[in-house]
Design a protein that fits this description.
alpha/beta; five-stranded parallel sheet; 9 helices; 9 strands; binds ligand 4FV
């Protein structure tokens, strides 16, 4: 059972999403558990405040250290240990990608700290000794959507969550290339035919076609990934040596 703990000011945002669809099924099947903790429940502020003005001036508000540290300590006391990974959703972090999803899918438990407002008092990040993780170079209003995106991406790699584990082996990024185009019934739609090769039953030819489509699509849409692929698959792109014709011995 994988355990994902989420520290947030909006626990219902997390609960409402993870109980649906694949993550919802995985939770029901006991393959994973997602528990959201409301940071506001831990504030000692008489007015239940969790944020305040930034020292040195500047726009917006910052989340205060005390409620965050006490919420974290409550989780550690509840599970009896520091979670394997303590991740802070922030634009200043290591960019989340499929490689990182595979890495995190191997962890028994992960804590996601979701910020809000302009951010969090630096001392809370030091005390929790967080890893900064970003889902992309843009600014969100809170860390909840990044945490949900990561939980979705990680949970589908957990054994048993997807009905057939094979389905995430051949997909975008699994081999560094974008996925090939896919088709299902009907065979013809508004004069648009499914490529004949896919109806041939010749699996070798189908795999070759799919790989070729992945290469072309990656070259066109993600030249950065294509360069990396070519660099790490030099043999595949080495100029084919002309077949040496064997001399006919008299
Ligand atoms: C973000 C991102 C992100 C910054 C201030 C929440 C917001 C607010 N997190 N990838 N991009 N976070 O924009 O992870 O606290």
């Amino acid at each position: 059972m994988k355990n994902y703990y989420v520290m947030t000011l909006f626990p219902e945002m997390i609960e409402n999403v993870v109980r649906e669809s694949i993550s919802g099924r995985a939770i029901k099947a006991g393959l994973m558990n997602v528990e959201a903790f409301n940071i506001r429940d831990y504030t000692k502020d008489a007015h239940n405040h969790v944020d305040d003005y930034p020292y040195g001036g500047g726009a917006g508000m910052l989340m205060q250290v005390q409620p965050i540290v006490d919420c974290y300590q409550h989780i550690v006391d509840q599970i009896g240990h520091r979670p394997a990974r303590v991740l802070f959703m922030s634009p200043q972090g290591r960019t989340f990608d499929q490689r990182m999803a595979e890495e995190l899918a191997a962890e028994e438990d992960i804590l996601f700290l979701c910020g809000h407002y302009e951010g969090i008092d630096e001392r809370a990040l030091e005390i929790l000794d967080v890893e900064h993780v970003s889902i992309g170079d843009y600014i969100l209003t809170g860390g909840e959507l990044p945490a949900l995106s990561m939980i979705d991406s990680i949970s589908r790699l957990v054994h048993g969550v997807l009905n057939k584990d094979a389905s995430h082996e051949i997909e975008s990024f699994s081999d560094g290339l974008l996925e090939y185009p896919q088709y299902t019934r009907p065979e013809v739609y508004e004069d648009r035919r499914v490529p004949a090769i896919l109806l041939s039953g010749d699996h070798k030819k189908v795999d070759e076609w799919r790989h070729q489509m992945s290469l072309e699509r990656t070259k066109e849409r993600r030249p950065d990934l294509y360069e990396a692929y070519v660099a790490s698959h030099a043999k595949e792109f080495a100029p084919k040596k002309p077949k040496r014709r064997r001399k006919r011995t008299e």
